[in-house]
Specification:
Layout: E1 3-7, H1 13-21, E2 29-30, E3 35-36, E4 43-44, H2 47-54, E5 59-60, H3 68-77, E6 81-85, H4 93-96, E7 103-107, H5 119-125, E8 130-137, E9 147-154, H6 161-185, H7 217-226, E10 233-237, E11 240-249, E12 267-271, E13 274-278, E14 283-291, E15 297-298, H8 299-305
Parallel strand pairs: 1-2, 1-6, 2-5, 6-7
Antiparallel strand pairs: 3-4, 7-8, 8-9, 10-11, 11-14, 12-13, 13-14, 14-15
Helix pairs in contact: 1-6, 5-7
């Protein structure tokens, strides 16, 4: 079955690898244009483009899928199906109607929950205990098409966005191959989404990762997990941006370790094991950080050259 692949970030790579390993013919790949991605602002290809070029697959990088040039390329490729995974561009009606077996999308949530660009981050921020992956027939709206297959995935309380993304990507690749096999056999299920249950996961702004120490420790922990590895939940320390990449909510019995009332963001204890910080509800222990202009370090390593004292307040 001839399969055109559309995808961009690392999340999409295992899906393309699975297609090639399963013997599907991929005549071409569509991905986002090269963009400045390194500290030196060098233009780098997307991970999907890098893989496609390694496998000698023709790559196209249009800024939009609207236009006759894209239509002509796809009609010349004559795909039976188009697979879309974290591509980042809207697929217009003219493209959806080209492959006879449809356009198939892999989405990192249990649709209709968390439609949109940031389902993994939003699920972690919300404290979800479970998410999953969905394959579906694409429609004109964002993530509104009929569901084909779904697989549930547990979210442990300390799992980061990066870890969950890797897990969902691997599960999604397997589910995609199963989906295509069902489509090829003509027995793929088709279930419409319940619009009443739909929730949305819009793209996150960087300001959303600023820590509000007046919130409960658990909410702060979920924000830290969602920002790891990028862009990093942040606060301010002595006027500099201070990112937090790892920590944990301390049990209630630790609240007896300090006697004076503490303001949200106040450091109640500073030690190589972590910074114990007061929040709006409970205590949070910061264990891995990155100060502005520096690299990620454990608190133990950071404190060696950067003293932080009890009574210092984060967020100022």
């Amino acid at each position: 079955m001839k399969t055109v692949f559309m995808g961009s970030p690392g999340f999409a790579v295992p899906h393309l690898e699975a297609l090639l390993a399963s013997g599907y013919h991929v005549p071409c790949v569509f991905t986002q244009p090269d963009r400045p991605r390194s500290r030196g602002r060098r233009y780098l290809p997307t991970p999907v483009k890098a893989l496609a070029e390694e496998r000698n697959i023709p790559v196209y990088t249009p800024r939009t899928l609207r236009g006759q040039e894209v239509i002509d390329i796809l009609k010349q490729a004559k795909p039976d199906v188009i697979v879309v995974v974290a591509y980042g561009l809207l697929v217009p009606k003219e493209v959806l109607g080209i492959p006879p077996k449809g356009c198939i999308n892999v989405h990192a949530s249990l649709l209709p929950k968390y439609r949109g660009a940031a389902p993994i981050e939003r699920a972690i921020m919300a404290g979800e205990k479970e998410t999953g992956v969905t394959t579906m027939y694409m429609a004109e709206g964002w993530d509104t098409g009929d569901i084909i297959l779904q697989e549930n995935v547990e979210i442990p309380g300390d799992m980061t966005c990066g870890e969950l993304s890797c897990e969902l990507s691997a599960r999604g690749a397997e589910l995609l191959v199963q989906t295509l096999q069902l489509i090829e056999s003509g027995v793929a299920p088709r279930m419409s989404q319940n619009e009443k249950l739909a929730t949305y996961a819009p793209k996150l702004g960087r300001d959303e990762f600023q820590i509000d120490w007046a919130k409960p420790a658990l909410a702060i922990h979920n924000l830290v997990r969602a920002g790891n590895p990028r862009p990093g939940a942040f606060t301010y320390l002595q006027g500099k941006r201070f990112k937090v990449f790892q920590g944990k909510v301390l049990p209630a019995e630790n609240e007896g370790l300090h006697t004076d009332p503490a303001l949200p963001g106040e450091i109640c204890r500073s030690s190589p094991e972590g910074l114990m910080v007061a929040t709006g509800e409970g205590l949070y222990l910061i264990q891995e950080v990155q100060c502005e202009g520096s690299r990620r370090l454990t608190i133990r390593d950071y404190l060696c050259g950067n003293p932080i004292h009890q009574g210092d307040v984060l967020g100022k």
